[in-house]
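Reviewers of the previous submission asked for a worked example of the structure-prediction workflow described in the proposal, so we include one complete record here. The input consisted solely of the amino acid sequence. No template or homolog information was supplied to the procedure at any stage.
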Amino acid sequence: MYSFLSGLYQKGRVSSLSKENGKWMSGAKAGTLQRRLYDQRYLFLMLLPTIIMVILFVYKPVAYWVIAFTDYRVGQGSFEGAWNHFESFKEFFIDSAEAGRVFQNTLVINLSSLFINMISAMIFAILLNEIRFRFAKSLVQTFSLLPFFVSWVITYSFFQTFFSTNTGLVNVLFMRIGLISEGGNLLGDSKNSYLLMIIANLWKSLGYNSVIFLATIAGIDQDQYEAAEIDGASRLGKIWYITVPGLANTLAVLIVLNSGWILSTNFDQFYQFTNPTNITTMEVFDMYVYRFGMKLGRYSYATAVGVCKTVIGLIMLWIANKAYKKMIGTSIF
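From that input alone, the workflow returned the following structure tokens.
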């Protein structure tokens, strides 16, 4: 009887409403939220340094976007420049002949890298999962992860060692066996820039991205494989009808989440690989902002270009999320 009456009391408490600060809210829910916040106060305290860093280094710089709308000069305060409205944006989109080239370079390299990297990582994870010898599997996975932890400075040194025109190991080997008469200029020829960046991105991220797919494979119900084996499914059949569908949602989520970074690149990567002979195809948004901001001192114009990059990235993320919702039925956010 006591339990029954207690249950009725709790139900009545949840359904009762109390007015607080001009808004109606559930007293039980408010009490539950306050109790949870109090019970987890130490967890929130542990998060506090991260929250402070995010505010200082991610959200606070947004306030300085005002520079894009002013004629900022070195020595002035960030909010002291003369207001020029949208002149910097107009110069980039209308007056400048370089906007189309920068968009093309960034989109071709990043979109190609995104899809090739994700699909390659999924295939690599499937093949890695099929290795039956645990030691060999761990060895391959370890070596595939190593490039991710190598800086782009060292990565460029590797590429220069193998692909430089006259002394690169690949060119020297091909010339000695008679496949080519002179070394190819992979690092300097602008025709090879897109392919070079796609290969470099794939080499760096293949092992790292495959870890996500391996974790997804580990979460697939093993009963499905056993049932398929009883029905006589081959090894390839189990991969095609069980593993691949199980990874499809993860692949879609990763593509959507990375779509917001389509216009963002690793600055240190392009800074290392860009030279005067290939700059026309290697100048992406980050390099363009660096050239006008740090080299030419046009801070207002460089800030305006950076603002455009961020806003367009957010729009592309929103579009990708809407497309994902239309195809799958649920959205990520």
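Strands lie at 17-20, 23-26, 70-71, 82-83. We consider this example representative of the routine output the project will generate in years two and three.
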